[in-house]
Amino acid sequence: MNKPPIYVTQPSLPPLEEFIPYLEKIWENKILTNSGPMHQQLEDALAEYLGVNYVALFNNGTNALLTALQALDLTGEVITTPYSFIATANSIVWNGLTPVFSDIDPVSLNLDPSKVEEAITEKTTAIMPVHCYGNSCDVAAIQKIADKYGLKILYDAAHAFGVKDSGGSILRHGDLSVLSFHATKVFNTFEGGAIICHDKEMKVRIDRLKNFGIVDEMTISGAGINGKMSEVNAAFGLLQLNYIDAALEKRKNIDEIYSEKLNGVKGIKLVGKATGQESNYSYFPILIEGEYPLTRDELYEQLKGEGVFTRRYFYPLISDFSPYKVSSLFSLKNLLEARKITRRVLCLPIYPDLKIETAKEITSFIKGYE
Ligand SMILES: *Cc1c(COP(=O)(O)O)cnc(C)c1O
Predict the structure, then answer these.
(1) Nearest-angstrom CA–CA distance, 132 and 194
(2) Fewer CB within 10 A of the end CB, N or C, for the chain?
């Protein structure tokens, strides 16, 4: 029997014919990029959907991270997590800044605020936490530290589209938050991203920096990049927004099946969601513990044999990749929890079109090995 492979994610796409009228509009007005009408509409629609003040669209999340760091006018060291996608740290380096990796909390898998304080030096100017898997960081504790030491906070919120806490969108926390609309993310525009900011002045600053720093023909505000989202991507985002609530609902159903079927399985630990949070079910990470009959890598290989391609997000730690291993600043001895988790984690397939039956089958495989 030759079943199609099941990957950790699959992009959700709206009906193709619904995209045609958007393209016709673009063909009519011949505006392809540079903050055209689709771009403007999507910024407004996303600000409303997410419940945030300002959205600055980008051509990808990485350029949004680069520009967010630049807009905050930082120097020296930025404290961040080693347990994330490589772009988190790369964007710090691209700004000529030094990433300092601090350990994670073993329950939330986000930066542990109590360790952040130990990592602060006189060169530290910012903290860059990640809402890993869309689970909110301890935003109150992080804000407290930032206030005490006069640091900026930039959240890498690439996983956190649509996540809310009791006060509203978690994107309202910190100085800036960055989203990714990459094909593999909960809300995609093929490629894309955004910076969420709280005031008009910052929005203007970011809008200039993403357009080469251009203010007018005679004035450049800074060494900006080309981070602009095209009209085609923005139009696609507008169409995607019509389907996002249904997509989140389907993800929730998959999440419930996994949680129900894997809860209590010996050696399988589920990563809990932050309490009081409205999740986006972007990932379904499990931790493989000693009592489980297989190691994490053995389980990964076994499932691959069944045509189920899970992912070891996040392994290796960013601090273990060669560009980051060299300096003593990226000290290994302080990352004990991250080091344990990275060897045990496995992310199971979760996406709107994943069949409930398939999710159940995956849990049967996991329960069946001995
Ligand atoms: C996806 C991702 C990014 C990068 O976003 P792109 O849109 O792919 O450039 C950055 N940080 C994290 C945590 C991500 O998962």
Answers:
(1) 17
(2) N
Is the pTM higher than 0.90? yes
How far from 251 is each of 166, 257, 272, CA to CA, in Å? 21, 10, 16
The answer for residues whose C-beta is within 8 angstroms of residue 69's C-beta and 6 or more apart is 78, 91, 92, 95, 97, 126, 128, 154
Q: Count CA within 13 A, CB hemisphere, residue 256.
A: 9
pLDDT in tens, 193-228: 999 999 999 999 999 999 999 999 999 999 999 999
225 within ligand 1 shell (Cβ under 6 A): no
Say if ligand 1 is within 6 A of residue 90 CB. no
DSSP letter at 132? Answer: G
Spatial neighbors of 322 by CB under 8 A, at least 6 apart, are none
Residue labelled with tokens 């997000």: 313
pLDDT tens profile 41-82: 999 999 999 999 999 999 999 999 999 999 999 999 999 999
Q: Is 66 in the pocket of ligand 1 (CB under 6 A)?
A: no
User: For residue 238, what pLDDT is reported?
Assistant: 98
**What tokens were used for 250?**
């389907």
Cis peptide before 316 (omega within 30 of 0): yes
